């Protein structure tokens, strides 16, 4: 069973992180690369957005009795196989999960240009994921 309050809290947190990242997305690359504080904030908000999405995704998987994913990136394949996500979005979110692993575990080789590009490209997909889950919650309530 879906724990609606848990999902809503995580979706609200995701929206906050995406709002902060959206403000950074318009920062020109040269200005971004010159500002360590801006880079650190962006990396942290990306990390928190990723955690929110993964928490929500894993909650949906558990609530539907779907097979457990083999790792973070596999989470979105499981949702795709279940018809929750379309293949393109699933693939892009899996790439985002791999970026999360770099931010958390392989932080010594973070490519700031990649992070900047990921913010600009990834916001749409993260918002789409949030909309899909919010729609699922609305449908379950009616």
Short description:
80% of the residues lie in helices and 0% in strands. The protein has 6 helices and no strands.
What global shape is seen? globular
| Mean pLDDT level | 92
Task: Characterize the largest beta sheet: strand count, sense, and whether it forms a barrel.
Answer: none
What is the first-to-last residue Cα distance?
15 Å
How much of the sequence lies in strands comes to under 5%
Overall radius of gyration: 15 Å
- Output the CATH class name: Mainly Alpha
CATH topology label: Four Helix Bundle (Hemerythrin (Met), subunit A)
User: Architecture, CATH level 2?
Assistant: Up-down Bundle
For CATH, the homologous superfamily is named as bsu32300-like
Can you describe what's shown?
The protein is an all-alpha fold. It has a single domain (4-141), classed as bsu32300-like (Four Helix Bundle (Hemerythrin (Met), subunit A), Up-down Bundle), CATH 1.20.120. Helix content is 80%, strand content 0%. It is built from six helices and no strands. It is globular, with a radius of gyration of 15 Å. The relative contact order is 0.16. The mean pLDDT is 92.
């Amino acid at each position: 069973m879906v724990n609606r309050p848990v999902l809503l809290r995580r979706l609200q947190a995701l929206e906050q992180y995406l709002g902060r990242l959206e403000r950074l997305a318009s920062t020109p690359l040269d200005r971004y690369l010159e500002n360590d504080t801006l880079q650190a904030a962006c990396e942290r908000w990306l990390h928190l957005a990723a955690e929110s999405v993964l928490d929500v995704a894993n909650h949906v998987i558990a609530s539907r009795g779907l097979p457990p994913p083999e790792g973070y990136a596999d989470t979105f394949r499981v949702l795709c196989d279940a018809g929750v996500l379309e293949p393109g979005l699933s693939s892009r979110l899996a790439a985002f999960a791999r970026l999360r692993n770099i931010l958390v575990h392989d932080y010594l080789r973070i490519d700031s240009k990649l992070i900047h590009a990921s913010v600009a490209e990834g916001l749409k997909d993260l918002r789409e994921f949030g909309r899909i889950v919010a729609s699922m919650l609305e449908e379950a309530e009616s």
